Records
---
Amino acid sequence: MSTMYINCDVPTEVSEEDFDYLNGLTFNLSERGYLQCGSKEHYLEYLHIIVAKRMGLDTTKLIDHKDRIKLNNQRYNLREATKSQNAANSKLSVLNTSGHKGVIFDKERQKWIAQIKVNYKNIFLGRFEDYEKACKIRDDAAVKYFGEFST
């Protein structure tokens, strides 16, 4: 593992086997927070995609950062993902008021609702008086549907 500055002012972490190759390229920070290549052979390609290709991953799929840190481009942190898996590994929305993914409070019934979205479909998991129970049910469903991608 190396934290490096690769012809860019933004530090990123990459695996040793990629350092020399990447250090010869130029990168800029994109509006989305990813490092984007400005060099001719990888023009406008994201750093994590370049690394994924070098790893032999299928880059027609999404490439997910396991720890959700866009500047951690070490090989152990990158994996292929479907859109649904990638969404399952996303951070908590700023619109979330419960503090837990997939859990909302039903003011009318005064109960917590647990739900999960799988392949663009909302799955209702139940209403619960206990917040912790709703969170546990939602977490169990995330593991069931998303396995290692669940958060």
Note: The chain has a mean pLDDT of 91.
---
Amino acid sequence: MVIYFGADHRGFNLKQGLIAFLGNQGYELADLGNTVLDEGDDYPDFAAAVAKKVSLNSEQSRGVLICGSGVGMDIAANKFRHIRAALGFSADQVFDARHDDDVNILCLPADFISDQDAQKMLKVFLETPFADDARFRRRLEKISQIENE
């Protein structure tokens, strides 16, 4: 599985730390930027880069997007077909998002969480399978229908 990362200047340091955290855990990692700390960068650029990659192969890839509040990344990523991005604020909530809603992009609020909490959420995001219950599939199909309208 490929994990695509993207972050603006407010999420840059957390992104670097999470990439290092996953470095020896067997995942294929791709940093889609920003690759330097640039106070003038804009989160939609990185959200689009990651969401495009994940949308092309949503079964075999995931994304992690980080900005100050996480909300901007979440909004931008969810504009792409086959993307189910969620703003993470606790490991339990991220579990439900993966288990029930099969989210494929985790958005993190760098200004509001610790590195340790981000690592916990990332670990849960990557290790929790989708439950694949009929009710969850039905709901995801309704979301797909909305995308196709």
Note: The radius of gyration is 14 Å.
